[in-house]
Amino acid sequence: MTTLHKAEIPLTLLLLPFITGLGFAVIFPCTGYLVYLVSGFYVVLSVFVFTNLFYKRLNIYKARWIGGALVHILLLLAGMISVEMHREINSDIHFSKHKADILVVKISSEPKLNEKIARFTAIVEEIKYQNNVRAVTGNLMVSVMVDSATKNRFTYGDELLIPANFTPVEAPLNPAEFNYKAYLAHQNIYQQSFLPQSQVITLRKGQGNPVIANALALRKHLVEKLSRNMHDTNALAVASTIILGYRADLRKEVQEAYSKTGTMHLLSVSGMHVGLVYLLISFLLAFLPPKRYGKVIKAAISITLIWCYAVITGFSPAVCRAAMMLSLFIVGFTFNRHINRLNLLALSAFIFLLYNPFLITDAGFQLSYLAVFGIIILQPIIYKWVNLKSKLGKRLWMVCSVSIAAQVILFPVSAFYFHDLPVYFLVSNVFIIVPSAIIMYGGILYLALPQIPVVSAALGWLLEKTIMIMTGTLTAIEHAPLGSINKIWINTGESVLIFGLISSGFYCIVRRDKKRLKLSIAFLTLIAISMSFKRYNAMNTDTITFFSLRKNSAILFRNGDKAVLLTDLKPTDKTYQYSIQPYLDSCKITDLQNIGLDKNIKTNYVIKQQNLVRFGNIDLLVIDRSSQYKLFAEKLNIDYLYITGSPHADLNYLKRNYNFKTLIVDGHNSSRAIEELEQQAVTAHINFRNLKRNNSLIIVSNN
User: Fold this and answer.
1) Which strand (E) or helix (H) includes residue 139?
2) How far apart are CA 446 and CA 452, in angstroms?
3) CA 363 to chain CA mean position, Å
4) Cα separation of 413 and 352, whole Å?
5) Among residues of the chain, what percentage have pLDDT more than 90?
6) pTM for the full model?
7) In degrees rounded to 5, what are phi and psi of residue 77?
8) Which H, E and C letters describe 167-184, residue by residue?
9) Virtual CA dihedral for 517, 518, 522, 524, nearest 10 degrees?
10) Running DSSP on this structure, what letter comes out for residue 101?
11) pLDDT, tens digit, for every residue of 407-463?
12) Nearest-angstrom CA–CA distance, 586 and 600
């Protein structure tokens, strides 16, 4: 087991306060306090220097904790300052803070084409307002509607001239919806622009980083080379992803097969891929003499090729971490220096977080580092649980113990982000050992060789069939009974409690410590109480949720774990999957009925007859174009009037025919119709709720 003595892992211990500072500043922005933070940093630094200069005179040796406390405070403040210094929206020359007619931007990411829309991140270099030109900074998310004839027009490094038609990125409007605004903000993107292709003018090409540009061009060429002898589109997409980190063509169904079997790491170029590449490099360089200069030359070539592979595969957090750790390991091995693996991990994290502190919010960064941490700490413990005599058995158990360690340490984070747990991850990870090696080494050989008709065709066939068998088997495992436990929704506090349970539990197993056993029981009790409380609330909750959608309507009538969804969407629609399904999963709805706006339904908790809905003690009337002239025999008393589809009905007409408490209009109405109704409602002092580009509305029934 890797030692946890603090004298041997100083970098790991120093990383903790720095990460704490980063996390605090990300969650609680300290923009207005930056001056005080910097001042506090220099004050603490001065005290630290002073106490070290007068160490003996002040008898500091009697209180050695003072130096450690000061270092931890310095690192905490450094983390907070680093986040605020890298928050580009704080800059006075950020483009969003100045008036502009035209923007000069440079494409800073590889453009991705999805259904005739090219999306890319761009750096805003200049703004033009009237006759003035000003240098600015800031990132912009650009979406351009393109036609099929020019779909490959945009490339990394292009300098473009576009109109200054940008808007702030919207926050999520529906409960449990993915927070795209926060996701982009952590990449220093706060504005977005949607443009037709006719409004985009290319000024110059090739203005980006030449290393990245050449790497992207090479990767594109290699993907095209793979496509020459691989005819199955899914197999080609998987091969491009595993070997080159190119995920643009990967279908959702294929991703889910890997995700729900615990083998998603295979589709994310990471330590395993870099390790296989290093083994191949070491084999090819085995002819070099084992003396000092031979070792140095081998190390230099190995490190260079590893980082070239990292650049080609997209420079993801996982591959960067693996490349950095492996580079440090190679250097230490070359000069006969032992470096604790936890210190290597901490040092690589320090380097990347100093370069970009917002990496701390990246799920890939968190999962990558946690997985390696778990393997270093937990895998030796788990491996000792089973004592096998055969070499094959030991190797298989080694793979299983690595998989278990990674899965255990990642569970709190993966459940928080992805809400599921693969059950057969051990079977899946053992199965992919041979196919993944064939794909990696066969793919590298195929790409390294020139196009030789028979050889290339044979290698292409081998890659394609191997991937098809591997994906087919993983799909079968995915759909096996109890293949995965889904709809796991835990909050931040529960994630922390689960981490505490894992830490204290393993410590108790290794040290046989009764105090840790009591602590583990305490963590388990708190987790059980929290989840039981949430379950009790969920089972005793009756609510109506009016979703905020742009071009559709959706109302959810929820009675505990049962619900009726009134909508014009299908469960397979993207809007449904993005804006509605997460909330259904978070509520743990087990009995859901989807009905159209024109359908009737009768259950023990909700009744819908034509456009009139009764849910408990709440009456709701839906008015759309098909029902705007359908009147009742007498004036109807209702609680909520829901307008959708821009019916020709003004407020006076509604008041003549209905008595209602609140008027609700959704996003499926024209802006003009909403504006007119809102003005009339304000004048008449009627409660009005506009769902178009506003938060959804949740009403609790008083049953």
Assistant:
1) strand 139-145
2) 10
3) 5
4) 20
5) 56
6) 0.88
7) -65, -35
8) EECCCCCCCCCCCHHHHH
9) 30
10) S
11) 999 999 999 998 888 999 999 999 999 999 999 999 999 999 998 889 999 999 999
12) 27
